[in-house]
Amino acid sequence: MLPAMTSAIVMEKTGGPEVLQWAEVELPPPGPGEVQIRHEAVGLNMIDTYHRKGVYPVELPSGLGMEGAGVVEAVGDGVDGLPVGQRVAYATGPAGSYAEARNMPWQTVVPLPDDVDARTAAAAMLKGLTVSYLIRETFAVQKGMTVLWHAAAGGVGLIACQWLSHLGVEVIGTVSTEEKAERARAHGCTHTILYKDEDFVARVRDLAPDGVPVVYDSVGAATFEGSLKCLRPRGMMVSFGNASGPVEPISPLTLTQHGSLFLTRPTLFHYTSERAELLDHAAALFGVIASGAVKLHVGQTFPLREAAEAHRALEARETEGSTVFLP
Ligand code: NDP
């Protein structure tokens, strides 16, 4: 019998968006502990560009993509609670969600509530679980606080603005254009700063003269140093992304000089590696979606085979909110 096949994005080498090729690949039956998922929507994330470029090492040839939503089509031995026909989503490796169908370890897959459709799930899972752990665990924000969130109109950013505003937290958000500023404010961001045109440190100090208790910085190289200057003494610097490039090494003394700061460089996968943690963050996310506190803004969609164009747009800062592939 011929092996079953599916279509997927494959990369033979790391590099620019042109390394992403649409190809026919084998789809074996799910092995022990695996479910086979037919995707109805797939999420685009900045981490996919880091994998594509080799900023985060990958074994080649490789699939790409960490986030998908769809329906369980087949179940391997030893899988618990995910029957054929179950609607599901996931937000982790192994990379390979840019595919019409794929096998996934079942422990990484969560059932979807009836009120969360696949498109919303693909827009929400990775980015929303990230907001959940960042604001509830990495630094547990409190009502009445004012925080700084960079790239506030991005996929993670728009979810964060809404969730924080729902918790009674004021958000100072940085964005590159006036259109993005309007989008962020419409999603609960209290103050916006055009960080390409304005001195964001001076603006933050105007708004919060004593400094903010926490900075969530996913822009990386371009903003890291300024972010330290926005923190109050003993504040928390959460460096969680490299949109403008990885942050250079720093001396611990730098943290002393800026006020005995705390610095962390977290990643979602270390906050959801236990299934109970994953389910807890997913329940928190689905809760704020169900209550209407967080609405997913899908700023743009692409067919999966046009993944290269989607990557180009994301890296050119042309996207707003979440980007979803519809296979
Ligand atoms: P976004 O939709 O937020 O896109 C990235 C945004 O970063 C851009 O839209 C742009 O917004 C801003 N940006 C600033 N400088 C640059 C630059 N030089 N090149 C490109 N973009 C730039 O992406 P995601 O929502 O997918 O992810 C947001 C960030 O969160 C990423 O850095 C990602 O790596 C990180 N992340 C980290 C996780 C973790 O657990 N550590 C998990 C998930 C995401 P603007 O035009 O307004 O400047």
What does this structure look like?
With 327 residues, the protein is of the alpha/beta class. It has 2 domains: 4-125 and 275-326, Medium-chain alcohol dehydrogenases, catalytic domain (Quinone Oxidoreductase, Chain A, domain 1, Alpha-Beta Complex), CATH 3.90.180.10; 143-264, NAD(P)-binding Rossmann-like Domain (Rossmann fold), CATH 3.40.50.720. It is built from 10 helices and 15 strands. Strands 3, 4, 5, 6, 7, 14 and 15 form a 7-stranded mixed β-sheet that branches. Strands 10-9-8-11-12-13 form a 6-stranded parallel β-sheet, sandwiched between helices. Strand 11 (212-217), helix 6 (224-230) and strand 12 form a beta-alpha-beta unit. Helix 2 (118-138) packs across helix 9. The longest helix is centred in the middle third of the chain and has 21 residues, at 118-138. The protein is globular, with a radius of gyration of 20 Å. Bound molecules: NADPH dihydro-nicotinamide-adenine-dinucleotide phosphate (NDP).
Low-confidence stretches: none
CATH first level of the largest domain:
Alpha Beta
CATH architecture of the largest domain, by name, is Alpha-Beta Complex
- Give me the strand/helix succession: EEEHEEEEHEHEHEHEHEHEHHEHE
Measured as a percent range, the helix fraction is: 25-40%
**How many discrete structural domains?**
2
Number of helices: 10
Cα gyration radius (Å): 20 Å
Largest sheet: 7 strands, mixed
Estimated structural class: alpha/beta
Percent strand equals 25-35%
- Backbone shape: globular
Mean pLDDT: 97
Q: What's the CATH topology label of the largest domain?
A: Quinone Oxidoreductase, Chain A, domain 1
Say how many strands there are.
Answer: 15
| The CATH H-level homologous superfamily of the largest domain | Medium-chain alcohol dehydrogenases, catalytic domain
Span between N and C termini? Answer: 26 Å
Bound molecules: NADPH dihydro-nicotinamide-adenine-dinucleotide phosphate
